[in-house]
Design brief:
single chain; two-stranded antiparallel sheet; mainly beta
Length: 73
């Protein structure tokens, strides 16, 4: 998550079999961040079953929920 004050985004990465991490894009959350560094690792939460991603938009006091499907957020 970038926590941008103008429009918050979830940052998307791909991990290769050798462990290399590559940025593959971002998805807007629909809310805003504070513009400061992410102050809590709890601001992004993955459900126990791995099907839902919850993101705190600290600037707009909202929570965005994303369904995770193979290859998509």
């Amino acid at each position: 998550m970038d926590n941008a004050a103008s429009a918050n985004h979830v940052l998307v990465f791909q991990r290769a079999e050798n462990g290399q991490i590559t940025s593959v894009g971002s998805v807007t959350t629909g809310g805003t961040g504070t513009g400061a560094g992410l102050s809590s690792q709890g601001a992004v939460l993955l459900s126990h079953d791995g099907h839902w991603l919850f993101v705190c938009n600290a600037g707009s006091d909202e929570i965005s929920v994303f369904e995770i499907t193979p290859g998509n957020l």
